[in-house]
Amino acid sequence: MGTPCDGGAVGGAGYGSGFALIVVLFILLIIVGTAFCY
User: What's the predicted TM-score (pTM) here?
Assistant: First the structure.
């Protein structure tokens, strides 16, 4: 939401917003996975 890429994609087809959401979920998944490992 605060990234330039997401802000620039708002006026587009909304592809950038969906892609950013997937990236955030993927990063959260990695953080949770590493948290369980440690």
Answer: 0.46
